[in-house]
């Protein structure tokens, strides 16, 4: 009895990206906020509020 040739996979689906676009945006905003906070510590609270708003908006868009 012969076995089928298994050289090529039958499922040729596209690979998934390692990180979603939404997650990438959140990470980039957080890194930018950290850099701004380091440069201007007096603006830390408004920057934190901005990051929170962007994160909430990204979550709303997901749903």
Automatic annotation (TrEMBL):
Membrane-spanning ranges: 21-38, 44-61
Domain of life the protein comes from: Bacteria
Keywords recorded for this protein, A-Z: Membrane, Transmembrane, Transmembrane helix
Lineage, broadest ranks: Bacteria, Bacillati, Actinomycetota, Actinomycetes, Streptosporangiales
Protein name: Uncharacterized protein
């Amino acid at each position: 009895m012969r076995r089928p040739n298994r050289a090529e996979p039958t499922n040729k689906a596209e690979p998934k990206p390692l990180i979603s676009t939404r997650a990438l945006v959140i990470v980039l905003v957080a890194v930018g906020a950290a850099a701004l906070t380091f440069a201007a510590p007096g603006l830390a609270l408004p920057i934190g509020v901005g990051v929170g708003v962007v994160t909430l908006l990204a979550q709303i868009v997901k749903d």
